[in-house]
Amino acid sequence: MAAQMVREWSGIQQFPAATQTKLLELLGKLKQENVDSLTILIMGKGGVGKSSTVNSVIGERVVAVSAFQSDTPRPVMISRTRAEFTLNIIDTPGLVEGGYVNDRTIDMIKSFLLDKTIDVLLYVDRLDAYRVDNLDRQIIKAITDSFGKGIWDRAAVVLTHAQLSPPDGLSYEEFFTKRSESLLKVLRLGARMKKQDSSESSIPVVLVENSGRCNKNDNGEKVLPNGISWIPNLVKTITDVVSNGSKGILVDQKLIEGPNPNAQNKIWIPLFLAVEYFLVKQIRGWIKSDVAKEFKPAWELRDIGAAKRKF
């Protein structure tokens, strides 16, 4: 694979001054923590707005988005630098094909990530998708099986298409809360998180609106119906995840190949041998005891007694 070309992050200049200031402050905070690069992995189903979110954050049309093609056909990494800080965002194909998780897509993403460290996972879905089902759970399970449960310590959920009017007379915040809770519940089930894991790790959920119909505030920033300027809020959430004390996920050959079932079973061999040794020893003791107690006929006892007197 050819070396990734790193370009100056000129797209940041397309943002309003208020957004630029906030973004540079957040990146400056990371540099104070000796973090001078950030690699963000974006995953989710197809057509949920992964590529559009990449374009929005970079401030350029770096990934093609088409109404006739809902996903990038293969993983792609966009790298930008600003003030000696490097931002890498990895866009990926949708994980579902024909109603099932596509294992080949998962394998392709893992191969692309070889020798890279995932600093943050953005799991993308839509705010206006009103239901979660077993397919969502299977997607979460596939990500967990591929990268380990620790990936969710470095994760945030992104809900796109956030410029909407909630149904059933719910307020915007109520609808957002219900949608977040239902998705996080399935996420915890798919990731096989225990109750203590769920209470100790809180996965943040952020809202995104990539379309041109997104409202703007007096500073020209894109804002959601709840008044939040979403681009700085998304970047702040990312920096919070990086600073939460967990470790990034290094994708090495061992992680790609997955656990070796034969190697896992080898750890039980000494235990099996020990059990076998003591079991056989015990059985032999029982046999000797039974032999000693075995009833002998009178003629055999008479012969044994005669032999003893003889000697």
Strand tally:
13
Q: In which range does the helix fraction lie?
A: 40-55%
- Most strands sheet: 7 strands, mixed
Q: Can you count the helices? A: 11
Low-confidence stretches: none
- The spatial strand order of the largest sheet comes to 1-3-4-2-8-9-10
Distance between the termini: 90 Å
| Beta-strand content | 15-25%
The average pLDDT score comes to: 86
Task: Summarize the entry for a quick read.
The chain is of the alpha/beta class and about 300 residues long.
Give a structural overview.
- 44% of the residues lie in helices and 17% in strands.
- The protein is α/β, with parallel strands linked by helices.
- The protein is built from eleven helices and 13 strands.
- The strands form four sheets. It has a seven-stranded mixed beta sheet, with helices on one face. Strands 5-6 form a two-stranded antiparallel ribbon. It has a two-stranded antiparallel ribbon with strand order 7-13.
- The protein is elongated.
Give a quick set of tags describing it:
311 residues, alpha/beta, elongated, 13 strands
Topology:
Elements: E1 6-8, H1 17-32, E2 37-44, H2 50-58, E3 76-82, E4 85-91, E5 96-97, E6 100-101, H3 103-112, E7 117-118, E8 120-126, H4 134-147, E9 155-160, H5 172-190, H6 195-200, E10 205-207, E11 215-216, E12 222-223, H7 230-242, E13 249-250, H8 253-257, H9 261-266, H10 269-293, H11 298-310
Parallel strand pairs: 1-3, 2-4, 2-8, 8-9, 9-10
Antiparallel strand pairs: 3-4, 5-6, 7-13, 11-12
